[in-house]
Amino acid sequence: QSVIANAVDQQTSTTEEIGARVDLASQISLDIVKRMAALSEVSDMTSRGSENTLEAANKLKDMAGNLNEYA
Q1: In this structure, is the dihedral angle defined by the CA atoms of residues 45, 50, 55 and 57, taken in order, positive or negative?
Q2: CA–CA separation, 38 vs 44, rounded Å?
């Protein structure tokens, strides 16, 4: 019976260790998902900023063209 009890204890310890590692992997995965979402948000903001910069540059180009007509 001692051998069986030791085997059960070993299996319990192994199962607990697997559970702890799965929990850690889950937490890391969640952290990765959060970081990817933040990266996506920053990417969207950068894209909008680029669009706004292009729009402003086009307006300046048009204004410069208008000024050249009067010069």
Answers
A1: positive
A2: 10
pTM: 0.68
Residue pLDDT tens, the chain, 71 long:
899 999 999 999 999 999 999 999 999 999 999 999 999 999 999 999 999 999 999 999 999 999 988 87
Cα separation, 58 vs 51, whole angstroms: 11
30-37 LR contacts (CB < 8 Å, sep 24+): none
N residues, the chain = 71
Amino acid at 9: D
Residue type, 59: K
Both tokens of residue 39? 């990266």
